[in-house]
Sequence to fold (225 residues):
Amino acid sequence: MLIRMSILLLRLAAAAAVLLVLLALPRWAFSARYGRLISSPEASPARPVALVFGAGLRRDGTPTTVLADRVRTAASLYHQGKARMLLLSGSDLSRFGDETEAMKTLAIQLGVPPEAILVDPGGHRTYATCQRARQVFAVRQALLVTQDYHLPRALAICRAAGIDALGASADLHPYSRRALAYWRLREYPASIVAVWESFLRPWLSPAAATAEAAQDCPDLSSHDS
Fold:
């Protein structure tokens, strides 16, 4: 009985180990493949557009520290002449307000002229941000502005969408260990979803992938940005 129990436990442990490896593999692959495309804002090459990803608002409607750091990094890229336009992508469904309006307000406060700013309130998640940047705003080359924990996945998704993307790190603060651990842990399941949406589904069912991308990219011709 004891031997059988030991064998069962070993099998369960082996299965758990295999499952953990499979869960972690996409994240590791993205980091290995795209990590070399990430640099500091000062070392970033010039691109026509700095694409800034949303990251939530505070209760008072102002950007969170993470989001503010992304906007500050993008503004720095603009002032350095490394981005002619800022595309601020976020959600207009946030419980505390429209992310993109808060991002735009901060960017203007940081000296970026309104005519150099585009906003996309339909960037509810990374996949939508990248798809819409390419299909709605016709972005072909961009600097992706977000934190290091998010950049490998963002680069994978945007490059799969047809954007020649490089990463500009927006890590301007020593974020809390608990928050950073949560963000990094969340990247593992998010990376699995990214593999499906950006790589497997277009290969297995191109028509279905194209249809969903079209749903994520409605006509913004009447949108005043």
Observations:
- Confidence is low (pLDDT under 50) at residues 218-225.
- The chain has one domain: 34-216.
